[in-house]
Write a structure and sequence with these properties.
The protein is mainly alpha-helical. Helix content is 67%, strand content 4%. The protein has 17 helices and five strands. A hairpin with a 5-residue loop joins strand 2 and strand 3.
């Protein structure tokens, strides 16, 4: 048997449907993923190609865009608020389902369906949002707001020293450190650079290798942050955050937007913990910050697609988007409550390990 070489012309295997491989002869980009042995047998060069090839055989005729939108919506709802990168999981799912990652519509779809999950945040935190809006309006008038008296959390793992240091903070604080003011500050810090780097962000969405590396690096960061910084947290509530903390979190989100796979929630949570926030405070701030960030990102991508792309949005496009958004909303609404309870009890370490394993798998399958 001769030395294997990459296929210049495609020959058939004895294990896959000849009709399937015959249909691939017109696709050199697929042939490049095969290795041909001298006797005339083609074998996959990597496991990712084998999976895609078998999937394409079993999913003939091609899967409906509506089913792809439905499955993507489930993945989005499950992963949007977990620190595992919903964008990475959607891209991986679409890759396995045979979606062209450089398709303008599906790149836009990947961002816009996150609106469904963000609407779930608005519904879940509706009472808290109304309270913040009322207190912020009062703070603008009086120039101060009350941060509340019970600043410690008896059920948390924070040290008594931390709790005592927090308790010394004044109950009345300046209006510009109100939780909503800090959310808006972090949003502005995130939005401007991301707008300027839009092209780079779009290119990285097409790159599974980049996504895998971001998953692994983010997982390692989470392990260090959760084990070392979480026990040393000094800020247990959003109402006691500082301008410095909000600026740091907004800066961390730029990395998440630039490198899909980093995870917006991971960047917010890890950035918050590095700056002294407790797990629950960092998570809650992440939820609130997601509202303006994702509304702006989704609105920008949708408007950009409608105005710039030569493809006109027809009824099927809008229906595909709607299916993805509604599905992600329903699933995310159930995930939020569970995630809040999980983090308080178990922390983020299991998600960090999961990120590293998934990143390694993606590097293996799609290299």
């Amino acid at each position: 048997m001769g030395r294997p070489k990459h296929a210049g012309g495609l020959s058939l295997t004895s294990s896959l449907d000849p009709d399937l491989l015959d249909g691939l002869e017109d696709h050199p980009e697929v042939q490049a993923d095969l290795i041909v042995n001298e006797p005339g047998f083609a074998v996959p060069a990597n496991p990712g190609f084998l999976f895609s090839l078998l999937a394409s055989e079993f999913l003939q005729p091609p899967m409906s865009d509506y089913w792809i939108a439905f499955l993507s919506g489930i993945v989005e709802g499950l992963t949007e608020f977990l620190p595992v990168s919903s964008t990475a999981h959607i891209v991986i799912t679409q890759k396995l389902l045979g979606v062209q990652l450089d398709s303008p519509f599906w790149k836009m779809f990947t961002v816009v369906i996150q609106l469904g999950a963000i609407l779930a945040v608005v519904v879940y935190f509706w009472t808290r949002i109304l309270e913040f809006l009322h207190s912020f309006r009062t703070a603008l008038r009086t120039k101060t707001f009350s941060s509340g008296g019970d600043v410690s959390n008896p059920g948390s793992a924070q040290s008594s020293t931390s709790a005592q240091s927090i308790a010394t903070e004044p109950a009345d604080r300046p209006w510009y450190v109100h939780p909503l003011a800090l959310v808006l500050l972090s949003f502005v810090i995130t939005a401007i650079p991301c707008f300027l780097m839009d092209q780079l962000i779009g290119e990285n969405l097409e790159n599974p290798t980049m996504i895998a590396i971001a998953l692994i690096v983010g997982g390692v960061v989470m392990v260090v942050v959760d084990l070392y910084y979480s026990p040393r947290a000094k800020t247990l509530r959003m109402e006691h955050m500082t301008l410095k903390q909000a600026i740091a979190i907004g800066s961390a989100q730029i990395l998440a937007a630039t490198f899909p796979g980093t995870s917006r929630s991971m960047a917010t949570i890890a950035g918050g913990q590095l700056m002294g926030l407790s797990r629950s405070a960092a998570l809650e701030f992440s939820f609130f910050l997601s509202i303006p960030v994702m509304f702006a990102a989704a609105g920008f991508k949708l408007l950009q697609f409608v105005l710039k792309e030569p493809i006109a949005m027809d009824t099927s496009h809008w229906l595909t988007l709607a299916i993805g958004m509604v599905t992600s909303f329903v699933v995310a609404l159930g995930v939020i409550a569970w995630f809040m309870q999980w983090v308080r009890r178990h922390g983020f370490l299991p998600f960090a390990i999961y990120r590293i394993l998934v990143g390694a798998a993606v590097l293996t399958w799609f290299r």
